[in-house]
Structures are given as C-alpha cells and as structure tokens.
Write a structure and sequence with these properties.
2 copies of one chain form a homodimer. Chain A has 255 residues and is of the alpha/beta class. Chain A is 43% helix and 16% strand. The first copy, chain A, has 10 helices and 10 strands. Chains A and B meet through helix 1, helix 2, strand 2, helix 4 and helix 5 of A and helix 1, helix 2, strand 2, helix 4 and helix 5 of B. The first copy, chain A, binds a DNA duplex (22 and 22 nucleotides) through helix 1, helix 3 and strand 2.
Chain lengths: 255, 255
DNA sequence: CGCTGTGAAGTTTTTCACAGCT
DNA sequence: AGCTGTGAAAAACTTCACAGCG
C-alpha cells in the first residue's frame, strides 16, 4: 500500500535545487513589477530587497540558471523575466481544471495571478448538480460526470482540488486516471498518488498554526512561559519528569 | 541596507527547528483523524505514512518535544494530540481578523479548519462600504475605519490579509500599529514590517508555477530536454543567441 | 569602481543505523 | 521482539568573501 513512494530525492530537476525553484516565482513577480514600471536593469541587491530575500542567495539562485547578469551593472529586467519564465515553463500554455467550486474554488477561478502567468482555466467542475451551469468567473460550472472527458479533451495536465477533504482522494484518483500529472491540493488531506505524479498542497490552517506557535513564543518571552502557556513547560528543562505536565493533561497518559 | 533585519537566526524557538514546527500541524491533523476513529496508539511508521513523511524524520521531530512514546509500542494518540496542540499554542484562544472580504476572504471566513484549531474569527473587515453589514459566515462585515478599534478591543494579535495587492501594505501597517504581531498574507506582495512582527505568505500562483516547472521537466524527459525547453543548456553559454526555441526571445538581450 | 558569479565555509535539515527501553 | 530516541554521517541550503569582468 503505502508503497510506491520513492519520491524524488529532492534535487532531481536538472540540477536546479528545489529551494531555488521555489523562489523563482518570487523573483519573477518582482521583475514583472519592475518591468511594468519600465525599469531597464536591477542589481542583485535591489531585486533581492523587492523579492524579500538576500542578495547572495539571489545571485546564487541565478547562477544555476546561467550567467544572465552584467558585472558592474546588474540584470536586464526583460531578459531575466523571459529566462525565468522559460525555466518555469510559463512560456507555454497550461490548461488547468479546478474541481470543487465552493468559496475557495470560486476565489481561485477569479484569481488573476493564474491567467497572467500562462495558466488557463479550462474548466470548473463541481459535484453539486445545483451548481451545474452557473457562471463563475465567466465560466460555466460543469458536473463531475464530465471530468474525464474535460481533462482528456483539453489535454489538462494540472488539476486543482478545492473540494471538501472527504472528496479529495476520489477526485484525485479520477484526475490522475484521466491523465493529470500535477495536482495542487487545497483540501486538508494527504493524497496518495502513483509515482510520477506531483502533488503540492496548500493548507490554510497550517500557516496559521505556525504563526500561533511563534506568537505564543513571543508572549512567553514577556512573562515566563509557564504563565503564558497555561502549562508548566518541561519545567526543569528536560530534566524533571520526562512524562510531562501533571496538572491538566487530558487524563490520558502514556502507559 | 534593509535595516532592522536581525531576524532570528532560525532555530530560535526554544530549540525546536523551524522545519519541525512546520510539520507539527501535519502530524496534528493525522492524529486528530486517528483520534476520531478512536485509535489508541500509533507507531511512528503508521503515523508517518498518514502524515506523508518518513518515520525517521517524524521520530526526530518528536524527540525535540520530549519523549512522548513508548518503546515497543508507539505513541498514545490522545496524549500526543494534546502535547502537540500545546506546543503549537492551540490550547489557547486566538482571535483573528480577516481583512478583505472578497472571494478569498469569504472562503477563509467559512473555512472550518480555523475554528476547530483554536482560531476564532473575531471580525471581517472590508474597505468597500457596500459590503459593510453584509453577513459572511454568520459574521457582519465591518468597515476598514473600525479596524483599529476592533483589533484593540478584541486583543487580536493575528491578522489575515486577503485584499488586493495594492492595499496590502497599508492594511498591514494599520494592523501592526494597532497591535497585531503576526500576519498571514494572501496578497501577492512582499510586506515590510518592523522587527518582532512575523509574516507568512501564501501565494496561490507560486505553487502552480512550481508545479509547472516539474511538469515541464517531465515532458522534457520524454524527448530530450533541449527540444522541450527550447534551449540547449548553457552549452555554448551566453553565446549571444542561443535564443529561444525558434528565436522568440523578447528581443532584449543582455548588453 | 561596481556588481556579478562562485568556490569555500558555515548552518540547517534529513537520513542512517543502532543502542536501549518496554 | 518491537519500536522509540538519538548520536553520527550525509545531504541540502545559506552565507561569506573575493576574484574577475565590464
């Protein structure tokens, strides 16, 4: 079962590190903004600031793509926009289907960032017959029954899942069976897919939880963690009782 | 130079690595599911599979929290749920405001994952007077004018920005001035904030771009990268025109 | 001179592999 | 016997710092 993992050992992609790939869209956005203001060139320092990273990192990232800058001057904005777009594969058209047209699906359908980056929403799909035919972002919602046909006919290779968690795996399976090989998953579930299919997930609540963690830390600094957290920390550090807090534990203890 | 940076050198938080913190919500979700099915204990192997990571990583992660397992047996599900929740700060109530009630803001307001994890939507705020008073997810939309008052009165320390890019920085500044110290940003902009304020961003189109990158790679593997990418690697290097596929470079070349 | 491109050093994260508890 | 907890090794990523080109 859980087999077939063997996921890529990271750095697969033709030598470009994953961490770098993940930042390319950031640079691209900053560059696009510069381009719109007709700025002809940028230094690594300026671009780095605009993208929210540091300049050494940016230069190193670009070095994986090739030598696209000019020493003593900087980078040609338009040229770099093109090179990064090409590297990301945005110079081609990517038909995308969005499955699950609730609030989130509708938000995605309306999201301008897609269309402007080579992504074309080929269809919106929802399981609720009452939704069928409704126009969202100018497109008619289609029924799930048509999923396979839509994917095949439009040569869709990227699918976006914005359904409730319970429906996600089945939708995923059907998308994959129909030919989709990349999935962006907004449902809070771990999807299992065959080898060769990429899944990326965005979980809105995970980000909030990470923030809460740091927020809690900040509060703790001001008045001693125990008070702020409502629990004694592992008091005497990891010394004391390893078992854990004794007071308000949910009554369940590890045997 | 971007002044006040000095951000924590990562591994700040009481010794727990950032990478581990980022995975705790994942474990928590898997554990919650097990808990609902009344599963009493799990092995690192099982839990790892459910969370989509490998078991060595999971055990290492848990080792930073303390020794909460039982050798030869595994982890007590309820106990672990509690420990992770506490570590993440989810045992306390976090009032949150969502600013920008468009499609995305509404989706967030309706998102169940928040409420069930200690997050309480204290208010929905939008700049459009026409929206004011409308009910979204059972809450009335308030006007931006009231932002400061709402934040202060509810002791909000976490703000979610779901406005258009153009409005994000101003909203951010006002939130911070009013006392917010953690921001979850959905607008496609880099926000600048004073030291001590955390920002996390979620950019929907970035994830798609990363998928496109990998998708492109897959296609390339089938027929030789040079052809698929439209460029020979840095073969002849920057030899002026190694240009594009069939010469469709944007005409701008680096000096 | 100014700024890129990059080896080398430093840091963080992941993985291995096994000692040690139950 | 089984599974956790963890040092130690490996890999990935970041930062430094400077040579070298324009």
């Amino acid at each position: 079962m859980a087999t077939g993992r063997t996921h890529r050992p990271a750095t697969r992609s033709r030598g470009i590190p994953e961490a770098t790939v993940a930042r390319l869209p950031l640079y691209l956005r900053a560059l696009t903004a510069l381009s719109e203001r007709s700025v002809p060139t940028v230094s690594s320092e300026e671009l780095a600031t605009a993208a929210g990273v540091n300049s050494a990192k940016l230069r190193k990232d670009f070095s994986y793509l090739g030598s696209y800058g000019t020493r003593g001057v900087g980078y040609d904005v338009e040229y770099l926009v093109y090179q990064i777009s090409r590297e990301l594969g945005l110079t081609q058209d990517w038909p995308v289907v969005i499955v699950g047209i609730g609030n989130l699906g509708a938000a995605l359908a309306n999201y301008g960032g897609f269309a402007s980056r080579g992504f074309r929403v080929a269809a919106l799909i929802d399981a609720d017959p009452a939704q069928t035919g409704k126009l969202v972002a100018g497109l008619p919602v289609r029924h799930t029954d048509e999923l396979e046909e839509i994917v095949e006919r439009n040569q869709v290779s990227i699918g976006v899942i914005a359904t409730p968690a319970g429906a996600a795996q089945e939708v995923c399976d059907r998308l994959v069976a129909a030919g989709v090989t990349s999935i962006l998953n907004f449902a809070p579930t771990v999807l299992s897919v065959p080898d060769g299919v990429d899944v990326r997930k965005v979980d809105l609540s995970i980000e909030l939880q990470i923030l809460a963690f740091h927020e809690q830390r900040k509060a703790g600094e001001d008045l001693g963690e125990a008070v702020a957290r409502g629990t004694l920390p592992k008091a005497a550090e990891e010394a004391a009782d390893r078992p854990g807090p004794d007071g308000d534990v949910p009554a369940v203890m590890p045997a």
